[in-house]
Amino acid sequence: MTSSFNVQDAAGYEQLMGRWSQKLAIPFIDFAGLADGEKVLDVGCGTGSLTFVLAKAANLGEIAAIDFSPVFVAAAQARNTDPRIKISQADACALPFPDKSFDRTLALLVLHFVPEAPKAIAEMARVTRPGGVVAATVWDHCGGMPGMRMVVDSLAALGEAGRQLRARYCFQPMMQPGEMKAAFVAQGLSRVEESQLLLRMDYADFNDLWVPIGSGEGPIGKFVATLDQADKARAEAAARDAYEAGRPDGPRSFANIAWAVRGIVA
């Protein structure tokens, strides 16, 4: 198994996370660097949040993008009108490219869903030329996503199953300070740097946050989908109460932090 992310529908993912991934792609590209004419690989492209921002950020020679989910691949391919971009289904732990194929290999919000993340990092380094850049970013679920943490804590307050979900969610691989950096170093990358990227998630109202979760999207939605109707209603009510925080439903804004790491291929 090469991905633990749960996807039902590309449009549902866009509402849950894709819209924020597109915003995160901009500071991530600034962190990873980019230059005209380069060949770049996007590992775990999803619906193309990073892929299509890359195409606008520089006059790149070629952009390859892969994802494990056929749902995501089909959605990204349907969006693509750029002949430089080639999107295919593939495994992050067995990239279908020769050694030293790319100038930069990037992964946006992917490695925490790869059970064998060190193997994926090794593959990213393998397909990148010497002197090229490997970079990745993941959310800090435990301390850097207050909106989603609010939902998870609401579910945890309802019972043991919710507490187990919280333990899994908060401590996914690569999310603790220094963890991804250490993994890059362990895979032989040099001049490894770690940073934090900040953006805000702005919701129009509670339903703007809850609908994709209630429909079963993502790791929290996967848990909610296992609940019976009564428990699902309790979960939604608890999450709504936390979101509203004693005020009428309406817009809310949450600051979110992602860890970012880059290294150079020796």
UniProtKB/TrEMBL annotation:
Domain Methyltransferase type span(s) in chain numbering: 41-135
InterPro entries documented for this protein: Methyltransf_11, SAM-dependent_MTases_sf
Pfam families: Methyltransf_11
Gene Ontology process terms (BP): methylation
Keyword annotations: Methyltransferase, Transferase
One GO molecular-function entry: S-adenosylmethionine-dependent methyltransferase activity
Protein name: SAM-dependent methyltransferase
